[in-house]
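[Automated response] Your request has been received and processed.

Submitted sequence:
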Amino acid sequence: MEVFNSPGKVIITCNRRLSPYLAQEVSALGFDIVRSFNTGVEVKATVNECIRLNLNLRVASQVLYEIKSFRAFDAEELYKNLVVIPWEELLPFDGYFSVTSHVHNETITTPLFANVKVKDAIVDRIKDKKGLRPNSGPELSKAVIHLHWMDDRAEIFLDTSGETLAKHGYRKHPGKAPMLEALAASTIMATNWDGKSPFINPMCGSGTLAIEAALFAQKRMPGLQRMNYSFMHVLGYNEDAFFEERRLLKEKTDKTNLPFIVASDISDEAIEIARQNARTAGVEHLIQFEVCDFAKTTVPAEQGVIMFNPEYGERLGIHSRLEATYKRIGDFLKQECKGYRGYIFTGNPDLAKKIGLRASRRFEFFNGKLDCRLLQYELYEGTREK
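Generated structure:
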């Protein structure tokens, strides 16, 4: 199987509600989108082109290259369709691979059983052709094969990513209730921030929003933080293609763009974690870190974006302390952030009512399984002290 230079169906997955932002990224890379759906987009690409996708996408989770699609009513039919694939041309016979799956078939009670059938078909085929069995297990550090099986329709993919792309590799210290990097990047894209005006992030926690803003401003792509992908462990891989993509990433980086980015938090520990994460990401010098109550955050007297990601509290019932906090956030935006576009990311609509401002737009997101909104506020122009 010559997958590196053969165009095929590629599914790029993402978390729910992120596909509009993923589609923007994929189109900007020059790919035509065949279709979009709630958790991803489809394009036509070679595995070499998947290398570019893996290194450049901020919002994606996995980049999946289709090997075969077929009908399978049960596990035996699944095995029969998979064992005839020339896996010995794709996976090293002395290597390691893992299997992941998304299965909804009435004959399958656990996806692990389907995974075992996939593994058995691959191992049996390679042993028959090469006389040796490759190792397999749960780690996603080498080659990864993905099964998507809904009712009687099955597709088998080469997962060219391996570990998820949604984590960008710099967050060694996550802090409390961190926002996933892909979600943070999507919320920044939703604001249409220009990457040059101030970006203010009070209540920054582990710093993900401010770090993603800094990476966005300097066009630093996630591929600069990562040196291992599934595609590297597939027969036919040429490392020159990978290093050429990395060279292009470095060329694209704009180190001269130095917007004013502030990350503040009342917790010394949170700011130290945020600073360490920013250092790992290579953007510590771009962010002004402040230990203070959010109302004391430095807000330059010009136009920009200010974004909060406060606690949501419980889905049911309202915490009186959080009610007061949300009201204070609204007062702060109204009084101290004139000329800015204000944003509050929350999973609690009752608390959002305490902000006391009328949202001009509401962007729908999920944070994990929690239904969330990014609320946009137009803060009218006026004079104010720094």
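Summary generated for your ticket: The radius of gyration is 23 Å. The CA atoms of residues 9 and 44 lie 5 Å apart.
If you did not submit this request, please reply to this message.
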